[in-house]
Design goal:
heterodimer; A: about 325 residues; alpha/beta; five-stranded parallel beta sheet; 9 helices; 17 strands; about 25% strand; elongated; B: about 260 residues; nine-stranded mixed beta sheet; two-stranded antiparallel ribbon; 6 helices; 13 strands; binds flavin-adenine dinucleotide; binds adenosine monophosphate
Chain lengths: ~325, ~260
């Protein structure tokens, strides 16, 4: 296999952890590993990354690239593919990575595989059906573009050989225009401080049931209520209750997931809990893989009974 | 303004997922299908733009016979016209194949805005929208949580991690892939469903779109070789017994954790 190009990302003035994971993933595909960094005033970051996993590293340095811009990134990555002759291009499955990677694949007429967590025996491994099934995917094109799930592999920690060099990029007129980034608003409900969280998912079925079934258990335990994304999407609860990659990342002593399947974006938000209990009617739900204790059953039977038992135990 | 909404019909979110004889897809017979959840939000966004002013909303989907049901639902919700690419030759297309077919439709329709979902609930690829934008030579944004028309452009808010947002301005024509929760999706009214019966639904083949022999399994560079249940690790200890018994087990664990 030919060279692999790692497209690293800069966040808050440093190379992102996920980019070191990419550097490690690239070595599963083989050597040589080369890299690209995109930004403004980044020659030092590029030199640092070259020695810490990036290998030979190009940097596209332009004030117009100070913030993510889909047109700018497309131009820079395509220029780096030409300069490096890479056969495989790797990006992280992050808001920048998933936004630009398929464009690169279309421009190169390459195969594209997203959100992979492993590469073995010539096949990419990924989850489909929102985490419920595993897929092995092959790519027969001369070139491949893949995005890698953040956190799927330990970051590269050794040293690598390679120098950083500036990559000339013809940016042309950028059609997409970055306006601003807005940080998350302060939340009325801060789940990050709760010791116990009782969360409900789509399986809870309707908004009233949160007040009737989920909240009483949270109250009985003296904990907080949380939710998965579809609950918030449907307007059953405000966004501040959402746990997951696009909600809050929580680390309570106890997390009780009711009617939540366990998609990766939810797991990212709660797998750091000290102890996880899952209640789900589907014995194959992926949530049972991260939970320590589980009940396969109807949450509408189990949760109210548990609430009564907790109240009784507290006297 | 013309808006093209691309939607995919996928297995119902609560459908049983049994792996079929080929080992590379699920058993489709006997399960229900629905419009991909992300795409219902894309359609709703288009209909809200239409409600706020003048717009024609065209929905397009690639897939077998059953997909006409999804398109009829979309027409019932308020879309004006539908295009169904129904052609056995397109079966087994990879994302780039689907994007090429949709690009051919976009070349015919010349929309000012293409609205799509961030990802499909079955393949979870998140691939087709940026590919289509590249093939259309148009700018795009994904994971969009807000769209505002702003003269000849659209201002959008993209969802980043942890609740942060990125505001981007896209000139027309452009493509926007929406995130779930961007709006509250309407239901098709009875009146809408009746009216939908008279709305045009055009059926096309790959050849009609100038792509004979270029899409489908033969043209696919990416192939799903094997599906399997995720490997089982340690897993949770599962409490068995009556409701009273499992509840007793849960309470004793919570007590053991020092939380009762
Ligand atoms: C970029 C991006 C960001 C995302 N961010 C987040 C995020 O921050 N947080 C998040 O949660 N998701 C997020 N998601 C969505 C995620 O992919 C899943 O769609 C979501 O987590 C599924 O929620 P769920 O488990 O509640 O629903 P489902 O997956 O539909 O699961 C419902 C579960 O309920 C069970 N059930 C049904 N009825 C009962 C009953 N009576 N008793 C017991 N069990 C029952 C079912 O067996 C099923 O397992 C994100 C997705 C993307 C693409
Ligand atoms: N067969 C299809 N027909 C029409 N649109 C599709 C099709 N497949 C995918 N799409 C669109 O592309 C989006 C992302 O799908 P995917 O790239 O498959 O995850 C979906 O939300 C749809 O808007």
């Amino acid at each position: 296999m030919g060279a692999t190009l790692v497209v690293a990302e800069i966040q808050k003035g440093a190379v992102r952890e996920a980019s070191f994971e990419l550097a490690a993933f690239a070595r599963k595909l083989g050597e040589p590993v080369m890299s690209l960094l995109i930004g403004s005033g980044i020659s030092d970051l590029a030199a640092g990354f070259a020695g810490r996993g990036g290998g030979r590293t190009w940097f596209a340095d332009d004030p117009a690239l100070a913030n993510y811009n889909v047109d700018g990134w497309t131009a820079a990555i395509l220029a780096a593919v030409s300069a490096s002759g890479a056969e495989t291009v790797l990006l992280s499955n992050t808001p920048c990575g998933w936004d630009v990677a398929p464009r690169i694949a279309a421009a190169l007429d390459a195969g594209f595989v997203s959100d992979v967590f492993d590469y073995r025996d010539g096949r990419y491994r990924r989850r489909v059906f929102n985490g419920k099934l595993d897929a092995e995917v092959s790519c027969s094109a001369e070139r491949a573009v893949a995005t890698v799930q953040p956190g799927a592999i330990a970051p590269f920690e050794g040293a690598s050989e390679g120098a950083a060099e500036a990559l000339p990029v013809e940016l042309g007129a950028l059609r997409a225009r970055f306006v601003e980034t807005r940080e998350a608003e302060a939340r009325g409900v801060d789940l990050t401080k709760a010791d116990i969280i009782v969360s409900g998912g789509r399986g809870v079925g309707d908004p009233e049931k949160f007040g009737e079934v989920i909240e009483p258990l949270a109250d009985a335990l003296g904990g907080a209520m949380g939710a998965s994304r579809p609950v918030v999407d449907a307007g059953w609860l405000p966004h501040e209750y959402q746990v997951g990659s696009s909600g809050q990342i929580v680390t309570p002593k106890l997390y009780i997931a009711c009617g939540i399947s366990g998609a990766i974006q939810h797991l990212v938000g709660m797998k750091g809990a000290n102890y996880i209990i899952a209640i789900n009617k589907d014995a194959d739900a992926p949530i049972f893989e991260v939970a320590q204790l589980g009940v396969v059953g109807d949450l509408f039977e189990v949760v109210p009974a548990l609430t009564e038992a907790v109240k009784a135990a507290k006297g | 303004m013309k808006i093209l909404v691309c939607l995919k019909q996928v297995p119902h979110q609560d459908a049983r997922l049994d792996i079929d004889g080929s080992g590379s897809w699920i058993e489709e017979s006997g399960i229900k299908f629905e419009i991909n959840s992300y795409d219902t939000f894309a359609l709703e966004e288009a209909l809200q733009i239409k409600d706020a002013g003048e717009a024609e909303v065209v929905v397009a989907s690639i897939g077998p016979d059953r997909v006409s049901q999804a398109l009829r639902t979309a027409l019932g919700m308020g879309a004006d016209r539908a295009v169904h690419v129904k052609d056995a030759e397109t079966a087994g297309s990879d994302a780039l194949g689907i994007a090429k077919l949709l690009a051919a439709i976009a070349a015919e329709e010349k929309p000012d805005l293409v609205l799509m979902g961030l990802m499909s609930d079955d393949g979870n690829a998140s691939a087709v929208p940026p590919m289509l934008a590249q093939l259309m030579d148009a700018p795009h944004a994904t994971a969009v949580m807000k769209v505002s028309a702003n003269g000849e452009s659209f201002q959008v808010e993209r969802e980043l991690e942890g609740g942060a947002l990125e505001v981007v301005e896209l000139p027309r024509p452009c493509l926007i892939a929406v995130q779930t929760g961007i709006n509250q999706v309407r239901y098709a009214s009875l009146k809408g469903i009746m009216a939908a019966k008279k709305k045009p639904l055009n059926v096309k083949s790959a050849a009609d779109l100038g792509l004979a022999g270029q899409v489908g399994a033969a043209g696919a560079k990416v192939k799903l070789e094997k599906l399997s249940p995720p490997p089982r690790g340690e897993g949770a200890e599962i409490l068995e017994g009556s409701t009273d018994q499992v509840v007793a087990g849960l309470v004793s664990k919570i007590r053991e954790l020092g939380l009762l």
